[in-house]
Amino acid sequence: MLRFFDMLGWMLKDRRLQEFVLRQGGGDDQFFMGARQTPRIRAELCLEAPSGLYGYRFDLAHVAGGDSVILMNEAYRDAPSAAQAEVEWTPIGAASKESCLWDRQERAAKTIRGLLQQCVVYQFHDTSPNSAIHRRWDITDAVRLRPDGGNLAAVLLDLRHADSQRYALIVRQIRRVLPAFQDFVLEEQAGKVLLRWQGAQSDKVFGSHLTSDGSLRVFCLLTLLNLPSARLPDVMLFDEPELGLHPHAITLVAEMFKRLSKKRQILIATQSPYLVDCFELENIIIASASHGETRLRTLPREQYQAWLDDEYQLSDIWLKHSVGEME
User: How confident is the model over 183-210, as pLDDT tens digits?
Assistant: First the structure.
């Protein structure tokens, strides 16, 4: 599911669907069990905005020559009320390698494009020696945190200068889960900044290469979740944000997710019992494998109320069955 929204971002934000497909292994790998078994993907989205309901749909077909994909049957529609099913679809162009929605200037098309461009998938997993977070970063790239956290040092430096109270809050929250942390050491050199920090027990300054993977992810998550609303996308998707985090840190991050969800749409993919227990039953969507397919479903409270009345937590119910199942 997260990869689908990631693909939408590449399609509609930068018009780079073909590059996304190439980075994800080629056209055949985008189709369930390969294009021979699944020759076409059909997608239809219903989007809600203050101005009404909007629909966007398209097909993806495999192109054997070059192992790429092609967009077909792209269309959109809008309706001011819930009667969207009665509104006709507006076709957009013919088959194309990139989305034709980008070229349309009608209000509905621009609204749909704007909504989908505001979907960002955050994944702070890559902390390898060559990852972006270890590089010196241009200080002007500091408005929004990048999906991989690569410009973290630039964002923190900007907050320290422009919003010192918010910066101080981030530092305090990091200290709560990493007692050895004192403060960031952010020094501009030739218009760039490197992520470094000082420990609480000495004046030793640590570079990101001497920092644990879990600590780097804590830095990214707590910075992102404390940014002002104007610097956050409308839809935020997180891929296993609990990786490498202490249970106490998971609890803190979960509370921040819930607070932010009042202003932003947030989706989290996780396999962590600790993180699952931080949310209500109605917030959980189960991904189950069935004959190689992934099926998504919600959990009716009446089906599990007896467990909850016996003071079982969600993770207790989950762990008593196969992973991904709660039946």
Answer: 999 999 999 999 999 999 888 899 999 9
Phi, psi at 206, each rounded to 5°: -105, 135
Task: Please answer whether residues 98 and 85 qualify as being in contact, where contact means their C-beta atoms are separated by less than 8 angstroms.
Answer: no
Give the whole-angstrom CA distance, residue 198 versus residue 178.
12
CA distances from 22 to 18, 48, 155 (A): 6, 31, 30
CB count, 10 Å around CB of 157? 21
Full DSSP string of 49-115: ETTEEEEEEEEEEEETTTTEEEEEEEEEEEESSSGGGGSPPEE--SSBSS-SGGG--SHHHHHHHHH
CA distances from 68 to 64, 97, 185, 238 (A): 7, 9, 45, 27
Q: Give the list of residues 6+ apart from residue 309 with CB closer than 8 angstroms, or none.
A: none
pLDDT in tens, 227-283: 999 999 988 999 999 988 888 899 999 999 999 999 999 999 998 888 988 888 888
CA 214 – CA 223 distance, rounded (Å): 14
Q: Distances in Å between the alpha carbon of 188 and those of 140, 157, 184, 209, 211?
A: 11, 9, 13, 18, 20
* 68/79 Cα distance (integer angstroms): 34
Q: In this structure, what token pair is assigned to residue 211? A: 């920092």
